[in-house]
Write a structure and sequence with these properties.
Order of helices and strands: HHEEEEHEHEHHE
Strand content: 15-25%
CATH class: Alpha Beta
CATH architecture: 3-Layer(aba) Sandwich
Number of helices: 6
């Protein structure tokens, strides 16, 4: 997936043309429900906060960094080689980005480098989720894997769990499987029709998020990490 394709995708997702608005209006609700426990953590924003891969989302309170200079992006740069020479950020959001970079361990090290002592890094990454290029798709992550990367970067785990659970996994794969049988022009119709039928099932995850066995089929995992305070001298 190249820069032109990314721009076209974002134009559909967030564009203001009548075609983009009608398409968004017809789209079914997402086949997942967010786990509210993910945000029950004491990790306040600071003066400077960094959002990795926000694209055109314009996240409030953050410097929005993305690989592509899309509308709403404050800084176009590679998150594996950040243009900051010292720690600056109280909180860093890295939401569904790690699977798209060739060297995620090195990127987490880089994020830890620019995090202020006492600051928080929030990682979200897919475990059981279909292949999706943006612009590439390299791997999947378990909670153990995310924790290991954070600890290797000198960060302390604070809270972990599943943003979207096993039911989301099943629904996403059913939708993608159905579209495999369709020509390109029919896929949006199938996704929309089947999505509207299936989406109420997503609320079953409200019963599964906290179960230990959710890790067998969890959709997206989250992990909060904190950078230790520097010892007093």
């Amino acid at each position: 997936m190249d820069d032109r394709t990314i721009r076209a995708l974002e134009a559909v997702r967030r564009g203001e043309s009548w075609r983009a608005r009608v398409r968004r209006w017809l789209m079914p609700p997402a086949p997942l429900v967010m786990n509210p426990d993910e945000w029950r953590v004491d990790a306040p924003l600071g003066r400077w906060n960094l959002y990795i891969g926000g694209a055109a989302a314009r996240p409030d309170g953050y410097l929005n960094l993305d690989l592509f200079p899309l509308p709403g992006v404050d800084l176009a740069a590679d998150a594996g080689l950040l243009p900051f020479n010292r720690p600056l950020f109280q909180r860093i959001e890295c939401d569904a980005v790690l699977e798209h970079v060739p060297h995620p361990d090195a990127m987490v090290q880089e994020l830890a480098r620019v995090l202020l002592p006492g600051g928080y890094l929030h990682l979200v990454a897919p475990f059981a989720h279909p292949f999706h290029e943006y612009p590439r798709d390299y791997r999947r992550f378990t909670l153990d894997g995310l924790r290991l990367m954070g600890q290797s970067a000198g960060l302390t785990p604070v809270k972990e769990g599943w943003r979207s659970g096993p039911t989301a996994t099943m629904l996403v794969f059913v939708l993608e499987y159905a579209k495999l049988w369709c020509p390109a022009w029919l896929r949006p119709v199938v996704h929309g029709g089947l999505g509207w039928i299936l989406f109420p099932l997503r609320y079953l995850d409200c019963l599964l998020w906290r179960r230990v066995r959710a890790r067998q089929l969890g959709n997206h995992a989250y992990l909060w990490l904190r950078k230790p305070l520097q010892p007093h001298r």
